[in-house]
Amino acid sequence: MIRTLLWILGAVLLGGIVHLATVLAMPRAANQDAYSRLETVTPVNSVVPLAPPTAEASVMPFMDPAFAAAVCRYDLADGIVKLNAPLSQAYTSVTFYTRNSIAYYAIDDRAAGRRAIELDLMTPEQHSQVPEGEDVTAADRLIIESPTRTGLIILRALAPEPGLMPMARRALANAQCRLGPVQ
Q1: What is the CATH number of the domain that holds 166?
Q2: Residue 40 CA from chain centroid, whole number
Q3: Do 22 and 39 lie in a common domain?
Q4: Given pLDDT bands bounded at 50, 70 and 90, which one contains residue 68?
Q5: Cα(122)–Cα(81) distance, rounded to whole angstroms?
Q6: Nearest by Cα to 156 from 49, 78, 58
Q7: Confidence band for 134, pLDDT divided at 50, 70 and 90
Q8: Which of 9, 25, 152, 183 would be 97's cystine partner, CB 3.0–4.6 Å?
Q9: pLDDT of 7-55, one tens digit each?
Q10: Sheet holding 150-158: strands in order across?
Q11: Are strands 92-98 and 176-180 parallel, antiparallel or unpaired?
Q12: Of 174, 136, 153, which Cα lies nearest the Cα of 71?
């Protein structure tokens, strides 16, 4: 009887270990992650509007049809990326993801406090090389450190009513994501 219980306990423990290992390995083994899906339709370091989601097809899963969306696939190998995203009339957000779809920073129009979200994206090594200027303060420039060299920047603009979707799309169409010099 005890021997049978020990075998059952061992099988449950082994099953739990296999389950945990599988769950932890799945993000690395997936070949249809967000970066891979967008790699074929987006050039590096430029903003590309995403097609609106429909019931039949969507570039990314779980896209909200009330938001216009655009993406910038960045690569920091050749320098820092400067992002300038004009604000829409309703709500605008910018979210940063690593190559493995881990969100590491987000900002919205209320936190930006200006007419546009302007920031510099760089690696920690590039940030350490930024000259410290006496006339440049932290309030003048928002610097985001990317934990990886490549990743995604997702821009979203809310259209509170379906008729306002063109306004949200125009706001994202004016966004820029480009390589820039360290200032």
Answers
A1: 2.60.40
A2: 17
A3: no
A4: very high
A5: 7
A6: 49
A7: very low
A8: 152
A9: 999 999 999 999 999 988 877 776 777 777 888 888 998 999 998 888 7
A10: 47-49, 67-75, 150-158, 92-98, 103-108
A11: unpaired
A12: 153
pLDDT band at 132 (very low <50, low <70, confident <90, very high): confident
Domain span at residue 6 reads: 1-30
Return the number of other C-beta atoms located less than 10 Å from residue 117's C-beta.
22
Q: 35, 156, 4: which is closest to 102 by C-alpha? A: 35
Residue with tokens 């993406």, as numbered in its chain: 71
Q: Distance between CA atoms of 57 and 119, rounded to whole angstroms? A: 33
Q: The tokens of 81 are what?
A: 């990326």
Which one-letter amino acid corresponds to residue 54?
Answer: T
- The answer to whether residues 68 and 157 touch, using CB atoms and an 8 Å cutoff, is yes
